[in-house]
Backbone:
């Protein structure tokens, strides 16, 4: 009887460890998917903000706008804007979005810096 109890206990322990390992691996997979989605959402917001500011400058001549990125953005992104697309790059992944900017210049931004954009005189790093 004692032998049967110890075998049943070992089987229960094995099943518990197996279930725990499956649960932990599933949580890790979901965590990685969440981080990828979070980076995409941040990149999309950055792209929209940059495109809006550049469009604003083109329609409101003789104006100046400040371009500041949220300090809540944990990943540092590089942003490149040309006439057809906005490329937002993180150290891990690149995201490409359509651009409403129709000028011939190419702009480069980094989310860790602040910029001042002026019509005619371009971009100045603050």
Residues:
């Amino acid at each position: 009887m004692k032998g049967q109890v110890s075998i049943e206990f070992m089987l229960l322990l094995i099943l518990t460890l197996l279930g725990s390992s499956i649960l932990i691996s599933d949580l890790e997979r979901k965590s990685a998917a969440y981080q990828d989605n979070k980076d995409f959402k941040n990149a999309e917001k950055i792209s929209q903000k940059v495109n809006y500011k550049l469009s604003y400058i083109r329609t409101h001549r003789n104006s100046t706008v400040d371009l500041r990125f949220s300090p809540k953005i944990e990943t540092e992104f590089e942003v490149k804007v040309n006439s057809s697309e906005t490329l937002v790059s993180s150290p891990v992944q690149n995201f490409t979005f359509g651009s409403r900017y129709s000028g011939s210049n190419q702009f480069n931004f980094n989310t860790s810096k602040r910029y001042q954009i002026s019509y005619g005189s371009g971009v100045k790093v603050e």
